[in-house]
Amino acid sequence: MTVRRGNKLTISIQEHMAIDVCPGPIRPIRQISDYFPRYSPTGPGPQSADGGQSPAEGALQQEGPGVKDGRLGAQRSLTSSADTSAEIDSCDSDDSTSLGTLEFTLLYDRHTSSLHCTIIKAKVRWPSVCLSVRLSVQQVLTHLSLSQGLKPMDFNGLADPYVKLHLLPGACKANKLKTRTVRNTLNPMWNETLTYVGITEEDMSRKTLRVSVCDEDKLTHNEFIGESRVALRRLKPNQVKHFNICLEPQAPLSSPSAMSTALRGISCYLKELEQAEERPLEERGRLLLSLQFSTQRGGLIVGIIRCAHLAAMDVNGFSDPYVKTYLKPDTHKRSKHKTVVKKKTLNPEFNEEFFYEISHDELTSKTLEVTVWDYDLGKSNDFIGGATLGLNAKGDCLRHWFDCLKNKDRKVEQWHTLTNELPGSAFSD
Asked: Which is more confident, 194 or 317?
């Protein structure tokens, strides 16, 4: 079509649609996987994108059969090992194993009624598949880089980990123990022993130890990393048991709805309250008491050593405990003794002794009442728990009193469970 200079070229819509603007058949864009094809070691060899042989196999056609078979075997082995490493990495990225592992030991000493937990370290997790599958050095190093000791929690890729212990069921603040914090590491070493005192055989049969690892943050709330729970019935008395286990995410709540930390604590408290109501007497803690009848001094020596896992009576979750003792009947009201007050604690240590001048024959008709109180300024003190020892007592209290009368000049120590039963002779503080 000829158009003069100065005339405007006009194209109708019909002519525009008749113009062939299609560049031809669209070919698929080659992916990176096309250059590194994957295939089964026992299946056919790789093919090119157009269905023919791959360039590597085409080049091997020009070589001898021996060389070709050797190189194809090497190529197939490398490809199969690459597939295996991909499966290993997918397993290592699971949440239940990426939190790290913790190594610790547990020992229950029956003679002292104490549970010793030694936190050793957070170990680098060695993938178990590395031990069963032959991998190259590069692949092993890759797995180790993906299997750090603990999950990084800070912006620098590290963490400030510490370990907390809780005895479940039980009040959190009454039985919480904590290690020191190791700064800027994913593979901390503590080698620190935490001890629970006042642990009875009954506790070992029904309680569970919760071991949790947290990251300490000075400006914000501490972050939870992982935890593990051990049933204490798995332990044998006076035998050390070693643990090296993977940390797990926090156990989900029984309720399907999401609950805040405060609501979770309330639910645990209500559950503990329901269990306590099922028992005839509610446990309020433990008391380590020593008794000794001294023939030289001519009287009874009562030692208040310590308390453990006391009930919290203040709004801050703690108590200000002290201990009182009475030797009844007391006609002159002179048998009252009282320890000092230990501020803001549920595991106080007193180490105080009180002396009652009395003959051995008179002591057989006496009753020792021990009560633990929470000191409150400006109002009446709160009763925490108590125990009564004498020939009319039962269980451990009777046994302890009988051992004291039987073994003169020998100090006899024993743990006693405090109950919410207030002794009749100690109604007034």
From this structure: 194
